[in-house]
UniProtKB/TrEMBL annotation:
Residues 16-50 form the F-box domain. It comes from Sesamum latifolium. InterPro entries: F-box-like_dom_sf (IPR036047), F-box_dom (IPR001810), LRR_dom_sf (IPR032675), LRR_FXL15/At3g58940/PEG3-like (IPR055411). This is F-box/LRR-repeat protein. It comes from the Eukaryota. SUPFAM superfamilies: F-box domain, RNI-like.
Length: 251
C-alpha cells in the first residue's frame, strides 16, 4: 500500500483480504466462525471457503443421543463437503465430532473422513462420543503422505490392509481412548520420521512401550498417559505423564 493512501469503506465496511478474515476465523470454533458470516458478504464468502472445516454435531438440535443423526447436521456436513469438492477447495484442517450411538453414524464418519483426504487435508481431529470400538479408522488415513497432524479419540485403529504406514509428513500424533496395539504404535513412529509431538492417553490394547530411546530420538515432546502401562522413570528422556514399562531398546 502506498504511504498515506487511505482505505475507503465500501457500504460502510472496511474491506479486509479474504486470507486475513479466514485467519481470524481459524481461531474460532465451528459455531463461532459461522456466526461471523452475518457480519458482511465478504465475511460470509470467506467462511464458505475457509480452509478449516469444523463439523460438530453438538451444534445442532437433537432429541436424544440414540435417535437418528439430526437432519440439520447431516445436511450441513454433506453440503459442506460437496461445496469444497465442487469448487476444488483445499482443506488444511478437518475436525469431526460425532455421537457414535446413532444409526448410520459410522458410515457417515467414514464418508466425511475420506472426503477430507481427497481434498489434501493436512490435519485431522476425530472424536466419537461415547467411544465406539466398532468404528475402525479408515486405512487411507495411515497411508496418506500429506498428513501433518492426526488426533483420534473414541475408536479402533488397525494396521492398514496393505500393511504399510505411509504418513511420511506426520509431525503430531494424539491418540486418546482408542484401541491400538503396541506393534502398530511403533510402526507409525518408525515410518514417520518427522514426528515431534506424541500423546498416548488411555490406549486400550497397549501392553508395554518398547524402544523408548528410539522414540526419544525422533520426538521433541513425548507424553504418555495410560493407567494400564507401567513405567520405569530411569529410562525416560522426555516429558512423561504416567507409568510406562520399557522392555526393549534400540542403540
Amino acid at each position: 500500500m502506498e504511504r498515506g493512501k487511505r482505505i475507503q469503506a465500501i457500504n460502510g465496511e472496511i474491506p479486509l483480504p479474504e486470507a486475513i478474515i479466514q485467519h481470524i476465523q481459524s481461531f474460532l470454533d465451528g459455531k463461532q466462525a459461522a456466526q461471523t458470516s452475518v457480519l458482511s458478504k465478504s465475511w460470509y464468502n470467506a467462511w464458505l471457503t475457509r480452509p478449516n472445516v469444523d463439523l460438530d454435531e453438538r451444534n445442532f438440535p437433537t432429541i436424544d443421543a440414540k435417535s437418528l443423526i439430526p437432519d440439520e447436521f447431516l445436511i450441513f456436513a454433506k453440503k459442506t463437503m460437496e461445496r469444497y469438492r465442487n469448487f476444488n477447495l483445499k482443506i488444511e484442517s478437518f475436525r469431526l465430532w460425532m455421537r457414535s450411538t446413532r444409526p448410520g453414524s459410522i458410515a457417515l464418519a467414514n464418508e466425511l473422513i475420506l472426503g477430507a483426504l481427497k481434498m489434501d487435508v493436512n490435519g485431522i481431529d476425530l472424536e466419537l462420543d461415547p467411544p465406539n470400538m466398532s468404528f475402525v479408522l479408515p486405512d487411507q488415513v495411515l497411508e496418506f503422505q500429506s498428513l501433518i497432524r492426526l488426533s483420534v479419540s473414541g475408536c479402533k485403529i488397525d494396521p492398514p490392509v496393505g500393511g504399510k504406514v505411509n504418513c511420511l509428513g506426520l509431525k503430531s500424533l494424539t491418540l486418546s481412548t482408542v484401541r491400538i496395539g503396541d506393534d502398530l504404535v511403533w510402526d507409525i513412529i518408525s515410518s514417520c520420521p518427522l514426528i515431534e509431538n506424541l500423546v498416548l492417553s488411555i490406549c486400550e490394547g497397549m501392553i508395554e512401550v518398547r524402544k523408548l530411546n528410539f522414540v526419544r530420538k525422533v520426538t521433541k515432546m513425548l507424553t504418555l498417559r495410560s493407567p494400564s502401562i507401567e513405567f520405569d522413570k530411569r529410562n525416560a528422556g522426555s516429558v512423561i505423564a504416567a507409568p510406562i514399562k520399557v522392555s526393549e531398546f534400540i542403540n
